[in-house]
Amino acid sequence: MSRGRALGPEFGAYEPGPGTRDPGPERAVIWKGPQRMRAIRIGKQSIRSADSRVLALAGPGSRVPGPEFLRRAPKLRPPNRRVGGSPMMPPGTNAQAPLFAGGRPGTLKLVVLLALAIMLMLADRQRGFLVSVRERALVLTAPVYWLASLPATIVEVGELAVSDRQALAAENQQLREELLTTQIELQQRRAEGEAHARVLALVEATEREAVTGTLVRIVDLDLDPFRHRLLLDRGSNAGLARGDGLIDALGVVGQVSAAGPNTAFAILITDPNHALPVEVSRNGVKSIAYGTGDATWLALPNLPLSVDLSVGDRLLTTAVGGRFPAGIPVAEISAIERPTDAAFAIAYARPLSALGRNRELLAVKPIAWLGPPDPTASARAPESDATPGHVQPPPSTGEEP
Amino acid sequence: MRPLRGTYRLFLLAAAIALLLTLVPMPTWLAVMKPMGLALVLAYFALEAPEVAGLGHAFLLGLVADVLYGGLLGEHALRMVILVFLTLRFRHRLRFFPIWQQAGAVFALLLNDRVLDLWIRMMSGSTWPPLLFWLSPVVGMAVWPWVFLLLDGLRLRRRQAQRDRGP
Question: Which of A333, A385, B92, B108 could be bridged to A313 by S-S, CB 3.0 to 4.6 A?
Answer without folding.
Answer: A333
